[in-house]
């Protein structure tokens, strides 16, 4: 038995030695070759000049982006081979901003390849946790790196880079001017008002209560919508006014958002989801649930359009309706709360 153990023990040693031999480096790095800029001051000066030119060109393209945005009319178009007709302002701003960013990147790469220290070092693996001494050492290395990179001593590189970086955010400020005027109170009111008739969307047919059977759902908008659009030449009102008109049995209608806001079981709610503003039209007749197709917010139309599922945080605003002397469905007033998603000033 002892001979067998000795034999087994002797067979283990070579395995351990083999493992040690595997961890021993078997290759050596080739001799380090200095760059031309490391040994030739003229080459270093030329590289420094090239980097500075790239940074200054970046600053120039940034200014050109601002000039293009201001000077080129928005209704001017150009034909680009392979891309068709495009807006000249967008093309000019995109090209100049792209060149500004590209030149900063190219300048930084050229700086690193030609002027920053080019040393090959090796370091053994160590623990990932750092002591206070190591952290201090790292900060010292960062400080030394700043000195060795030439950022402190090469003034023309430093100044041209800072100039390019300082000007680069300016187009974003200028482009923000294109957002247009603030909406003020426009989000709180729509074209709906007392006596405005409901018409079908998009045919524009006036609606009567007898047009609806129990379970019917119709998309509608104000009768005066088209006149307003022709007068103001925009579609802003169309985004706020669409409604869904639903008829259910009066006994199924558990609650409304105001007294007398329905007419014989006919109710009207905003068609704009209160989550992110998607148009809603998926209606479940048996449950009276209205489902948003974007993120599955679900509203119970039989219970004041309260949220029963999904990310929406507010119910759909209800439009008070009635009938006029000719028997057509009309609005009693505008919505009593803003339609669509929440906004900062909503309160």
Please describe what this structure looks like:
- The structure is a single chain.
- The protein is of the alpha+beta class and 347 residues long.
- It contains 9 helices and 12 strands.
- The strands form 4 sheets. It has a 4-stranded antiparallel sheet, with no helix packed on it. A 4-stranded antiparallel sheet has the order 7-8-9-10, with no helix packed on it. A two-stranded antiparallel ribbon has the order 1-2.
- The radius of gyration is 36 Å and the shape is elongated.
- The termini are far apart.
What is the gist of this entry?
By secondary structure, the chain is of the alpha+beta class.
List the helices and strands and how they pair.
Elements: H1 2-23, H2 36-39, H3 41-71, E1 77-80, E2 84-87, H4 88-114, H5 132-148, H6 155-167, H7 170-175, E3 198-200, E4 217-222, H8 225-232, H9 236-240, E5 243-247, E6 266-270, E7 282-284, E8 289-291, E9 298-300, E10 306-309, E11 321-323, E12 329-331
Antiparallel strand pairs: 1-2, 3-4, 4-5, 5-6, 7-8, 8-9, 9-10, 11-12
Helix pairs in contact: 3-4, 3-6
Major sheet attributes:
4 strands, antiparallel
Principal-axes shape call: elongated
Number of DSSP strands?
Answer: 12
CATH homologous superfamily placement of the largest domain: Rieske [2Fe-2S] iron-sulphur domain
Helix-strand makeup class? alpha+beta
What series of H and E elements makes up the topology? HHHEEHHHHEEHHEEEEEEEE
